[in-house]
Amino acid sequence: MRPLAALERMIERLVERSSARIFRTQIQPLQVQRRVERAMETQRRSVAGRTMVPNRFTVRLNPDDLAALEPIATTLVSDLADAALTFARTHRYALVDRPRVALVPNRAIAVGDIQVDAQFQDAGADASAGVSGAEGANGPAVVSDRTMVFSIPQPDAPVAILRELRPDGSEREVSLDGRPLTIGRATDNGLVLQDSRVSRHHARLQARRGTLVLSDLGSTNGSRVNGVTVQEVVLGPGDRIQLGDTVLIVDTVSQA
User: Fold this and answer.
1) Is the confidence at residue 134, as pLDDT, over 70?
2) Which of 21, 193, 224, 251 is the most buried if burial means most Cβ atoms within 10 Å?
3) Between 3.30.428.10, 3.90.870.10, 3.40.50.620, 3.30.2320.60, what CATH number should domain 4-119 receive?
4) pLDDT higher than threshold 50 for residue 42
């Protein structure tokens, strides 16, 4: 963590903790969201020309504060994950997978304080694997003397509309229905591109936990999103994908 960021975090914690004690105010969801965003900012990394940010967040609260949030906890963790995704997209940060959030009680945390631990976790890993007694992503909420994890319902596969801008200047609209779509020159692809600089099997678009993900399939000339070469990236509206001399623009992404 950078020295200035550490100092800002210390001051922020002291102010929030003092306010909670003096005015007996409850922690507000927006405070938690800001802490998640701060954790994302302070732990970002530069990898192959991209700014990567964490995608797994453990929010530790005093049990009394967490109890006050319990009536909205299931909605809160979902909203926090959505807000983290929006924050990353707004700042053009790259994620390895859709953000996930867990709320954890800890008596060592003072009333009014918020501690956020952020981690990078591969898409194939179960976010709850390290939580004692926790079930999978769609299992029921788990409550123990150490951990309270509120599950997030599995999002529907996203549907999207892309605009294909061809090298000859023509264009067409491409609709995605949530199923995986391979892209390349070969005729067995779901989206066949007439572009000599595109590999036979160049890239794949697929749904992953409610997001639209582009994966390069080891293409010769690579895949670029918004001018940056990528291996895999979560897409959003307005993103510009370049494969060879062909450009695909993401017009809309929504839930099915």
Assistant:
1) no
2) 193
3) 3.30.2320.60
4) yes
